[in-house]
Design a protein that fits this description.
By secondary structure, the chain is mostly helical. The chain contains 18 helices and no strands. The protein folds into 2 domains: 227 residues, MFS general substrate transporter like domains (Growth Hormone, Chain: A, Up-down Bundle), CATH 1.20.1250; 191 residues, MFS general substrate transporter like domains (Growth Hormone, Chain: A, Up-down Bundle), CATH 1.20.1250. Helix 13 crosses helix 14.
Length: 454
């Protein structure tokens, strides 16, 4: 048992090892750290975080713009066109993400992120001139492929840019960058729509087609990805050991399948990784049902109307923010694996309690608690994986995790309404809560036997 514990977790960084994170951080042995270092862990991670902020902003603006363009080119079947385009963004991930993880572990990750940002900028630049639905579907597919490579490359790079003790804060900041930018992006998109209408009357700018839906937003979106590429190009991020050992242009299908199998075997056999990924995925299945069922629950069970659904979602969002901030403040004093399993169990219990309430205020309170625990599960889950998975396997692990997240969210969105029709909204939410608790029990069992914190 003790031997398994040592091999499951990555060894502590050696300051004399050039591949160790702290060896590349100039602030480690230089007296009082700067404000940027205290908050972000290192200047390099600060630049990566800025790149993620503008990249996430671009993703959300691009998402809204593509939806608007799909409605335009779809003609009378706008809803069907939007569905087809969104499928082109979602479905490929289930098939291409495992291969993307292999490539990220094999290639220079800094170069991957820069090239993916520039590729997304180039594809977006073509969108205002697209007039057919199939061209838009192809563009959406290319955008998704670039994202499938960028995201695991970014996650695999984080432990190489910050000290191990700062990973919880780093993941909290990454979560804020990924999802906290959506409200801002929505506002920017609305303002750009109006600005595009005004610019459309300028004859000298008629070639840019500002008057078409989403065009002005697309041009700003292009700039966000170029800015992200510039930020990442300044990082001090040496290639991984595997990237240094092989020719990136060498095509070896046998090696590719072997590395793919190696990654899957690791994820299925390592108890820590398996428990964390199962808990995150199952938690998303249960917690994701709040989105398709929350409106019905608010109107039919709580009697709070459609406005009540907005309050429930806001409560969950504020709860997540509170949980993430609290984790960042207490990270050095918290046993990560223990808090992770408690958070999974707490998320299931909070969802069960929220679904059991008949008073709107009490339901809002428990949904807020669900947000606190869900945010903790997300941040600590990513942190444990960053600390556990060796650099050679990190790209494949996080690529698979993103695929799992995507699948579980789609499953919850699809299964939630069907279950509600069959067994009722409240019972469906109870079932989702029990599923989360079951995953928490499995995670508790696995992590207790492999972690020194148990």
């Amino acid at each position: 048992m003790q031997a398994r514990r040592r091999t499951s977790y990555a060894p502590a960084p050696n300051p004399d090892d050039p591949d160790a994170p702290t060896a590349r951080l100039p602030h480690v042995e230089r007296g009082e750290p700067s404000t940027v270092v205290r908050l972000f862990g290192s200047p390099d991670f600060f630049r990566l975080w800025l790149a993620q902020v503008v990249s996430a902003m671009g993703d959300w603006i691009g998402f809204l713009a593509v939806v608007a363009i799909a409605g335009r080119v779809g003609g009378g079947s706008g809803a069907g066109a939007i569905s087809l385009v969104m499928s082109a963004r979602m479905v490929p991930g289930f098939f291409l993400a495992p291969l993307a993880g292999v490539l990220v572990d094999r290639w220079d990750r800094k170069r991957v992120m820069v090239l993916c940002d520039l590729a997304r900028a180039a594809v977006l630049l073509s969108l205002p001139f697209i007039e057919s639905l199939w061209a838009l579907v192809l563009a959406s597919l290319l955008l998704e492929v670039a994202t499938l490579l960028w995201s695991p490359a970014k996650e695999a790079s984080v432990p190489n840019l910050v000290p191990t003790g700062h990973l919880t804060t780093a993941n909290s900041l990454s979560l804020a960058a990924a999802y906290g930018t959506f409200p801002v992006a929505s506002l920017v998109f609305a303002l750009l729509q109006k600005a595009g209408t005004s610019l459309d009357h300028v004859t000298a700018l008629s070639f840019a087609r500002f008057g078409q839906a989403g065009s002005a937003a697309i041009y700003v979106d292009v700039l966000t990805f170029v800015a992200s590429a510039l930020f990442i190009s300044t990082l001090v991020l040496p290639p991984s050991r595997r990237a240094r050992q092989r020719d990136e242009l060498d095509v070896d299908f046998n090696a590719t399948f072997r590395e793919l199998r190696e990654g899957w075997e690791f994820m299925f056999t390592d108890p820590v990784v398996r428990a964390v990924m199962l808990a995150i995925g199952t938690g998303l299945v249960g917690g994701g049902m709040i989105v398709p069922l929350g409106d019905v629950f608010s109107r039919e069970v709580l009697g709070a109307g459609a406005a009540g659904f907005g309050v429930l979602l806001s409560a969950m969002g504020f709860g997540m923010a509170f949980g993430v901030v609290t984790l960042s403040a207490l990270q050095r004093r918290l046993p990560k694996t223990r808090v992770f399993t408690v958070s999974v169990l707490g998320a299931g219990g909070s969802l069960f309690a929220a679904a059991s309430m008949s008073a709107f205020a009490l339901s809002v309170l428990f949904v807020a608690a669900l947000g606190v625990f869900a945010g903790s599960v997300y941040v600590l889950g990513f942190t444990i994986l960053h600390e556990t998975v060796h650099d050679d396997l990190r790209g494949r692990t996080f690529s698979s995790l993103y695929t799992l997240v995507r699948f579980c969210l789609l499953l919850s969105f699809a299964a939630g309404p069907l279950l509600a029709d069959r067994i009722g909204v409240r019972v469906a939410l109870w079932l989702a809560a029990c599923t989360i608790v079951g995953a928490g029990v499995l995670a508790l069992t696995s992590l207790r036997t492999t972690s020194g914190e148990g």
